[in-house]
UniProtKB/TrEMBL annotation:
Keyword Hydrolase: yes
Source organism of the structure: Pleurotus ostreatus
SUPFAM superfamilies per UniProt: Pectin lyase-like
The protein's name in its UniProt record: Glycoside hydrolase family 28 protein
InterPro entries (UniProt xref): Glyco_hydro_28, Pectin_lyas_fold, Pectin_lyase_fold/virulence
Any one GO MF annotation of this record: polygalacturonase activity
Signal peptide extent: 1-23
An example Gene Ontology biological process: cell wall organization
This protein's GO CC annotations: extracellular region
One of the Pfam families matching this protein, by short name: Glyco_hydro_28
PANTHER family for the chain: PTHR31736, PUTATIVE (AFU_ORTHOLOGUE AFUA_7G06410)-RELATED
Length: 413
């Protein structure tokens, strides 16, 4: 590309930002766009958008400075053959009013994101130091435990992305869910560090590590996820998902669902392997969660009555340390907060689920709580090599409802 274009962009941004003479800039040199942070801490999003616009194809985009301020939403989708090098920190701004009013739609569960990102053949490298900092404490205090507060933005939505790799990126203090992956195929996310930890009494609620939707062939390798509620969670139409070599501190573990939240809508999760995962103080190891068959209220916090299936899911070679509640869990009881019952109504079919081998301990007398719906009992539930897990009591409870022909275990309740 013409180097003059780069100078033009720098000049143009300068002209546009006459009042903000220290605004972030882009310099361009052969197909390399370098983003320079503003000198006065003002919004760097316009310069970043300019870089992604100039270098949207067959290019490299480099963030070379230590700190960039993001005060407005970004949509950088439809990239092609782009390498992104993030060496510093992207710090999201504190104007809650702005973010709640301007989030870009996830188009699912009424949720929004601060950055929609995507394309084909993208390599996004953080070199183990490039960081997304969502300034989440502000959100944890503001939200004060309310579930799925409208307009609380997902840090990064990877959408319509194919044949791409995200590597060595750190995500700290996410505003809400750290990542959502939507309508994507063949994406590897490796060496990812996620830590959303509240320093106040307000919990870091809903700071999921990543949620997937309408995506196929997604690999999560070497993730470290920390935080009161973090997890990797595979939702509507997630297929051929591989989770490897991950470490979870706290949170719920690897989750399938929640799913079945939209009445009459057919959704699936199929072919999932999670292997070589360490769970430190998580509530479960691998966990499957569907809404009941009765719709109550509306998503994101209400719903139910969804159809479809989750099948061929394997949680193997897990190391457990002080898992708090139980190791294996299926529940088809999820419903609007405060509502109870309906546990036998879900028509969502759970089948062919394998836990084990696993070693380590659970801080209860319960190995598993497998609550399948009476309206769609679960066949093909298997334990393989789960006998070495230590429980805290003398018993090893496996509580079951509507588990058909359990394999490798006996239901004790
Ligand atoms: C352009 O790139 C070349 C080599 O990659 C480098 O030597 C030169 O300093 C760069 N120029 C600018 C203005 O960044
Ligand atoms: C994506 O980019 C291609 C060219 O690179 C263009 O033809 C297409 O219209 C763009 N799609 C959208 C949704 O912007
Ligand atoms: C926060 O954002 C709102 C809505 O965009 C805007 O009206 C307000 O001026 C901003 N506040 C500050 C302190 O920038
Ligand atoms: C991002 O921009 C593209 C192209 O303008 C548009 O099609 C898409 O809907 C936008 N995405 C979001 C999440 O706003
Ligand atoms: C959906 O989000 C909008 C704006 O973010 C909010 O006003 C509305 O209450 C939300 N709906 C539900 C059902 O939460
Ligand atoms: C795993 O990811 C961390 C960054 O979170 C990195 O420091 C480490 O080298 C990675 N391990 C391997 C085996 O790649
Ligand atoms: C997560 O972050 C908190 C502080 O925000 C820190 O104390 C803790 O050590 C971090 N956990 C990991 C596993 O890095
Ligand atoms: C993941 O954790 C969040 C809490 O932050 C929770 O709302 C969500 O339901 C969890 N996902 C699953 C599938 O358990
Ligand atoms: C999910 O995939 C199934 C096919 O496996 C398809 O029938 C269904 O329409 C998809 N669901 C949605 C909400 O797109
Ligand atoms: C189940 O999924 C795994 C990948 O997770 C795949 O290798 C295996 O072939 C699948 N089995 C069936 C019966 O589809
Ligand atoms: C699941 O894996 C099996 C075996 O590899 C394959 O035949 C099947 O098509 C996969 N299912 C989906 C939804 O990709
Ligand atoms: C598990 O909890 C016990 C008792 O509190 C503690 O001694 C041990 O260090 C914990 N193990 C790990 C790996 O955190």
């Amino acid at each position: 590309m013409d180097p003059f274009l780069g100078f033009f962009v720098v000049a143009a941004l300068g002209l546009l930002g006459i009042r903000v003479v220290h605004a972030g800039t882009v310099s361009m040199n052969d197909s390399i766009c370098t983003v320079h942070a503003s000198l006065d801490g003002s919004d760097d999003a316009p310069a970043i958008l300019a870089a992604f616009d100039l270098c949207r194809r067959d290019s490299v985009i480099s963030f070379v400075d230590d700190l960039y301020h993001i005060e407005s939403v970004m949509n950088t989708t439809n990239l092609s053959n782009v390498q992104v090098n993030l060496h510093g920190t992207l710090l999201w701004g504190t104007n809650i009013t702005y973010w709640r009013a301007n989030g870009l739609p996830l188009d699912y569960l009424n949720m929004t994101t601060a950055w929609a990102f995507g394309g084909d053949k993208i390599v996004f490298n953080g070199y183990d130091r490039g960081t997304f900092d969502g300034n989440g404490q502000l959100w944890y205090d503001f939200t004060n435990g309310v579930s799925n507060l409208p307009g609380r933005p997902i840090s990064l939505m990877i959408t319509d992305t194919t044949r791409s790799v995200f590597s060595g990126i750190r995500f700290v203090q996410s505003q809400f869910w750290t990542m959502a992956i939507k309508s994507s195929d063949d994406v590897l996310l490796e060496n990812i560090y996620v830590n959303s930890t509240s320093s106040s009494r307000a919990p870091a609620r809903n700071t999921d590590g990543v949620d997937t939707f309408f995506s196929n062939q997604i690999t999560f390798r070497n993730w470290t996820v920390t935080g009161g509620d973090d997890n990797i969670s595979l939702k509507a139409n997630s297929t051929n998902i591989l989770i490897q070599d991950c470490v979870f501190h706290g949170g719920l573990g690897v989750a399938i669902g929640s799913i079945g939240q939209y009445p009459g809508v057919f959704e699936t999760v199929e072919n999932v392997t999670a292997e070589r995962v360490s769970c430190f103080g998580t509530r479960y190891s691998g966990y499957i969660k569907t809404w009941t068959g009765i719709q109550q209220n509306f998503p994101p916090n209400g719903g139910g009555g969804g159809l479809g299936y989750a099948k061929n899911i394997t949680f193997r070679d897990f190391t457990l340390a002080n898992v708090t509640d139980e190791v294996a869990r299926i529940t088809q009881c999820t419903s609007f907060s405060g509502a109870t019952g309906g546990c036998d109504t879900s028509l969502f079919q759970v089948s062919d689920i394998t836990w084990g081998p696993m070693t380590g301990n659970v801080l209860s007398d319960t190995i598993a709580q497998l609550q399948c719906s009476g309206a769609s009992p679960c066949p093909g539930v298997r334990f393989v090599g789960m006998d070495d897990i230590a429980t805290s009591g003398s018993s090893r409870r496996v509580a079951c409802s509507h588990v058909v022909d359990p394999s490798g275990f006996n239901c004790t309740v």
